[in-house]
Amino acid sequence: MTGLPNQHKLFDLPKEHFIHTETPHYFKERNQGESEGDYLARLTKSLEELIEKEGAETIAAMIAEPLMGAGGVILPPEGYFPAIQAVLNKYDIPLIADEVITGFGRTGNAFGSETYDIKPTSMTLAKALSSGYIPISAVIVNDDLFEPIKEASGDIGVFGHGYTYTGHPVSCAVAFKTLEIYERDKVFQHAEKVGEYFQNSMKDILKEDYVGEVRGIGLIAGIELYKDPSNEIPFEEVGKAGKILSDICQKNGLIVRPILDTVALCPPLIISEKEVDELTDKLKKSLQEAK
């Protein structure tokens, strides 16, 4: 269902049942002279037009990440989710928040939905649910979804959405302990505090050559590279610069993820300010070596 083209090259499935609206990336998708408020109004209008074109009765739900992770650490414009959720509510369309990346402190709050004022019908969770140590995922639903599932399950005598490894006791034990540690050690509060320091440190990266945009929140950031940042001119061979910088970073002891010509940083929630300084120094060194 993703809108990432690379995901549809090989093991693809028919996707005619999935429709996509615009990526809410103001820096790259704005029209010349368009304010962020006008851009948001355009996105909201476009979404409503799409719903009316398709027919609200044909749309089961909208699925969205609070911020796009694998899409390049793309943060929505201010007020985006309240604006689009007003449209969704008008047409009685549920909103599913994909919290697989943003959940459990990554944005400085327990969930990205808190950070971006989202009122989701349901949330999908994974990754940090076990701190990445063991496979486990979960879905949280509100009463409007839970009650019909409960009623239908009662009719057939069993919860009809389970599978072989659902509720595996080892995975559940690890997840339970992880949640206990998050609360005991105040990990989310630490991530919020150090996240502010991290984002301030990332602002210095804008001074480096070829850096066109630095975007992030909490303990996640994306550094986008341009051939000519001042005129927002990208490199001719998309993805090459990001891979080169990623390789140099790894040589210098810093692991980043290249996403085309954006390098994503996602440090551990327990990182210290001193370690943020080390990360920033290694990133600056790598950018200077990449010239």
According to CATH, what is the topology of the largest domain?
Answer: Aspartate Aminotransferase, domain 2
Structural class: alpha/beta
Rg, nearest Å:
21 Å
Report the order of strands and helices: HHEHEHEEHHHEEHEEH
The main β sheet shows up as:
4 strands, mixed
E-strand count: 8
CATH superfamily of the largest domain: Type I PLP-dependent aspartate aminotransferase-like (Major domain)
Question: Quick check: average pLDDT?
Answer: 93
Overall tally of structural domains: 2
- β-strand percent reads 5-15%
Helix content: 25-40%
Poorly predicted residue ranges: none
Termini Cα gap: 38 Å
CATH class of the largest domain: Alpha Beta
- Overall outline: globular
Q: What is the annotated CATH architecture of the largest domain? A: 3-Layer(aba) Sandwich
How many separate helices?
9
Output the strand order for the largest sheet.
1-2-3-4
InterPro entries: Aminotrans_3, PyrdxlP-dep_Trfase, PyrdxlP-dep_Trfase_major, PyrdxlP-dep_Trfase_small
GO molecular function: adenosylmethionine-8-amino-7-oxononanoate transaminase activity; pyridoxal phosphate binding
Keywords: Aminotransferase, Pyridoxal phosphate, Transferase
GO biological process, one term: gamma-aminobutyric acid metabolic process
List the helices and strands and how they pair.
Layout (H helix, E strand, L loop, with lengths): L25 H4 L6 H19 L7 E3 L15 H11 L4 E4 L13 H4 L6 E4 L12 E4 L1 H14 L12 H16 L2 H17 L7 E7 L2 E6 L14 H12 L5 E3 L2 E4 L7 H17 L2
Parallel strand pairs: 1-2, 2-3
Antiparallel strand pairs: 3-4, 5-6, 6-8, 7-8
Helix pairs in contact: 2-3, 7-9
Pfam families: Aminotran_3 (PF00202)
Keywords: Aminotransferase, Pyridoxal phosphate, Transferase
GO molecular function, one term: pyridoxal phosphate binding
